[in-house]
Design brief:
The protein is mainly alpha-helical. The chain has ten helices and four strands. Helices cover 57% and strands 10% of the residues. The strands form two sheets. The protein has a two-stranded antiparallel sheet with strand order 1-4. The protein has a two-stranded antiparallel ribbon with strand order 2-3.
Length: 201
């Protein structure tokens, strides 16, 4: 099973930014046409098949044009095939290449864990904040249990306050998408390899 981030497959170019709201917040993508942004994904995103399997940059640029449907003018197309990107596209490509699939998958797992821990606390209720004190020795041992209701109320209020933000992060999912297919071959020390290993476990 493969994992991609900001995968443009099965998405109309004009809907690409809406599918991944984070893309709308990246300044480097503001003045880039949808198909040009998708070209940048195919050409530079670390989870793109072309980045993973096509080592020749010129060949990758040509194939990225085909897969993205990006159809610039004749002069710009020739420049792209020579890897001479205009300044806006060059900045876009650089930013697209900076997204870290491994870190994003880990971030998603961390937010998921926080969400699950919050759920556990709420399900336990006040008993989650129960403490026991033991006094005396032998037959005179006395155990006292105490529930810190104030702490329970404070933590519950904090969880309620944090939930909308956590839910948004989970729904956006850090742009992690799972797709069927052969597992990506990656170096054992790479973030992507660790990412896939973790995903399989």
């Amino acid at each position: 099973m493969n994992i991609r981030i900001f995968d443009p497959s099965n998405c109309k170019p004009e809907d690409y930014r809406h599918k991944y709201p984070e893309l709308e917040r990246v300044p480097e993508f503001e003045n880039i046409a949808p198909r040009a942004l998708i070209f940048a994904w195919w050409y530079a995103n670390k989870s793109s098949d072309l980045v993973l399997y096509t080592s020749d940059d010129y060949e990758r640029a040509e194939e990225a044009l085909k897969r993205s449907g990006f159809n610039p003018g004749k002069i710009e197309r020739e420049q792209i095939l020579k890897l001479q990107f205009n300044s806006a596209l060059a900045v876009c490509i650089k930013r697209m290449a900076e997204f870290d699939p491994g870190a994003r998958y880990k971030a998603y797992k961390m937010i998921r864990n926080i969400f699950d821990h919050y759920e556990t606390l709420i399900q336990l209720g006040p008993e989650a904040f129960q403490t026991s004190t033991v006094e005396g020795k032998g037959d005179k041992t006395v155990t006292t249990q105490y529930i810190d209701y104030k702490r329970y109320v404070d933590v519950s209020a904090k969880i309620s306050e944090e939930l909308p933000g956590l839910l948004t992060k989970l729904e956006e999912g850090f742009a992690v998408v799972t797709i069927a297919g052969e597992e990506i071959e990656a170096g054992k020390n790479s973030d992507l390899h660790e990412w896939h290993e973790a995903r399989e476990n």
